[in-house]
Amino acid sequence: MGEVVFVYGTLKRGERLHGHLKGAKYLGRGKLRNFGLYKVSWYPGIVPEKGAKVEGELYLIDETTLKVLDQLEDEGREYRRVRVGVEREVGGRQEAWTYVYIGSLAEAIKISSGHWVGEKT
């Protein structure tokens, strides 16, 4: 059956790490409310933040890809994988996994638009 993941940064289409989602099924765009988006290095991170929103993409992935993403995101040390409710662009809500940043925001830059545009590959 698979798992649904919400990506908001370097894993989105056209971004440098999107290749890790090869074979995943694109389910559409969505918004995650009450999370803020920050540039923490050359990549972004999200943190809980009342009233903020993050734009991203939803994908259906297999268990192997989920494990690859856990390693890529340094799950448990730099990011924590959590279940969230995402508002789908086409309507309705979708439960999905996403990666919440658990590092320091001391040097981070807030992206108020909630839309990540990074270096393209």
Automatic annotation (TrEMBL):
Q: Which Pfam families match?
A: GGACT
Q: Which cellular component, as a GO term, is one annotated location?
A: cytosol
Q: InterPro entries annotated for this entry?
A: AIG2-like_dom (IPR009288), GGACT (IPR039126), GGCT-like (IPR013024), GGCT-like_sf (IPR036568)
Asked whether the keyword Magnesium is assigned, the reply is no
User: Which Gene3D superfamilies does the record cross-reference, listed alphabetically?
Assistant: Gamma-glutamyl cyclotransferase-like
Task: Tell me a Gene Ontology molecular-function term this record carries.
Answer: gamma-glutamylaminecyclotransferase activity
Keywords noted in UniProt: Transferase
Tell me if Transferase is a UniProt keyword of this record.
Answer: yes
Record-stated family: Belongs to the gamma-glutamylcyclotransferase family.
Q: Could you identify this protein by its name? A: Gamma-glutamylcyclotransferase family protein
Q: Which organism is it from?
A: Thermosulfuriphilus ammonigenes
